[in-house]
Fold this protein.
Amino acid sequence: MGSLRDCQAWKAVGLPLSTSSNEACKLFDATLTQYVKWTNDKSLGGIEGCLTKLKAADPTFAMGHAISNGLVLVGTGSSVKLDKELDLAVKTMVDISKSQQLTPRERLHVSAVEMFAKGNFPRACDLWEQILRDHPTDMLALKFSHDAYFYLGYQEQMRDSVARVYPFWTPNVPLSSYVKGIYSFGLMETNFYDQAQKLAKEALSVEPTDAWSVHTIAHVHEMRAEVREGLEFMRHSEAHWKDSDMLACHNYWHWALYLIEKGEYEAALTIYDNHILPSLRASGAMLDVVDSCSMLYRLQMEGVSVGQRWQDVLPVTQKHTRDHILLFNDAHFLMASLGAKASQTTQELLTTLQEASQSPGENCQHQLARDVGLPLCQALVEAENGNPDRVLELLLPVRYRLVQIGGSNAQRDVFSQLLIHAALNCSSRSHRNVARSLLMERDALKPNSPLTERLIRKAAAVHLM
């Protein structure tokens, strides 16, 4: 842990930490570094190992509690409402912060994590932004806000939050090349594809194992329907990112999307079976969960039989039926319960989401559930029940609001595809004409997409094109 920063090193860069333990400071740095790199570094003991040692080195280190709780919360697999241990950990963090002389920056960190725990993501972001105005090289504030903006679908804020601090991240600042990757993702999500690709390539020229920058380039090729280039890039770079355990599964998911786009379904299923399902079973991480569900659902819409694969996903998603942390997650859990024909689980998810929407408090996801989350979930149910006209009636009015449930443009495309497939199968002629409109729009935005061309051929078969 020689290169990791001790108390004096953190103080020297204007980010002092309120602990006298050099060991705690170094372990904080080790945890933060792994979070930024999307990997559990075995030589450091992984994130869990570092956090365990961090708490032992100084049990009352407020920023140790903030990073520990924050990482659990941004993982979106646990909520203070259902996880009593997490609830106690957040309360302990707040109590510790009140009993100490912390810096204003540290107090804001604690408050932001507390707000995120309550589901008030916008307020948490405001607090992290307050930190970044005075401390533009505070990586924890930058990363936590980036993730929260992503969950909120705040694409411009996700981009601009990094743009505001980017000039301060000079090459001598630790982890500065990774900021290029973080910035590139915000640029890509706001359709600045050339700038995004340039910046991600710059990041990779400094650090080829930067899996997040690889991920940006994968997105650029996906959004431009550059299937051949995307496949070549993933094959060429695979050796550099396949060991980035927290993101490798997602990068393989992008690889599989190119194959689905091409209509090479067996090859896509091979990636699913060899990389995505094993990662899901090993980690249970929400990113791996939504990737699994999204991929199987896309294949099903293409008419591909996925066999018993939903049965493999269901035990993981079932545990989260009542979480209601992110509407984006809920929609994917629902895909699994519908795919596995687990009607009781489906009903439980819908009923408890309805209840959450009726008394949302300051939880931004519960506030959004009534107008966006529930219509989306109901549309998935109606699609499963063979009611395409009802799917259209539910989805069409909210299609431009779906960005608010978070996720990337590429991830939410599953819902666009659902809408088109439903419209193509509608009994009403005017409803089927919606398919033609959507396909013309899709073809204009993403020309040369093989998937769009297949859908256009399907529309032509029913005399819509």
Remarks:
- The chain has a mean pLDDT of 96.
- Residues 197 and 217 are 6 Å apart (CA to CA).
